[in-house]
Amino acid sequence: MCRLQCMFSHSSGSESRLSLEDTQQWSQSLERLMESKYGLATFRNFLKSEYSDENIEFWLTCEDYKKIKSSFRMSLRAKKIYEQFIKAESPKEINIDYHTREQIKRNVKTPTMHCFDDAQRIVYGLMERDSYPRFLRSDIYRTLLESLAADATKG
């Protein structure tokens, strides 16, 4: 745990130190957690520790995908996302229904920036209902809160 806290307390930028208040706010919503670079990093660490990081990786990959301007690059990236996350038996296959999987399979042939939106919504819902509550109950999050609370009382 010190590794996470130490990593966060020595970083630079506008969010240069992880505070107890910021960390407590992660429990307000998954969106709040993922808006924080430290929250996102801690959540990803937690998911990796549970061998269930494919959903967050897919969601983040889709967010990056939406920023692509070149139709050629978009086409290449869409196919790669499909092969990595959507296709049955893919290395990081996400848990989506058959209908959504088939719709994406068709969409990837002529991809748009929104061709993964349905799957992204499903995955976000899964994280919100399953992974996020587990994270809030996890030793990783609890220990980080306790450590920051102890630091705060020291001054």
- The H/E string reads HHHHHHHHH
Share in β-strands: under 5%
The major pleated sheet works out as:
none
Instruction: Look at the helices and sheets and give the structural class.
Output: mainly alpha
CA-atom Rg in angstroms: 18 Å
Share of helix, binned: 55-70%
Features:
155 residues, mainly alpha, 9 helices, 70% helix, elongated, disordered N terminus
Q: What would you note in describing this structure?
A:
It is a single chain. The chain is an all-alpha fold and 155 residues long. It contains nine helices and no strands. It has helices spanning 2-9, 20-25, 30-35, 37-49, 54-65, 71-86, 98-107, 117-137, 139-154. The longest helix is centred in the C-terminal third of the chain and has 21 residues, at 117-137. The two termini are 20 Å apart. Mean pLDDT is 90; it is low at 1-15.
SSE topology:
Elements lengths: L1 H8 L10 H6 L4 H6 L1 H13 L4 H12 L5 H16 L11 H10 L9 H21 L1 H16 L1
Helix pairs in contact: 5-6, 5-8
Short synopsis of the structure:
The protein has 155 residues and is mostly helical. Helix content is 70%, strand content 0%.
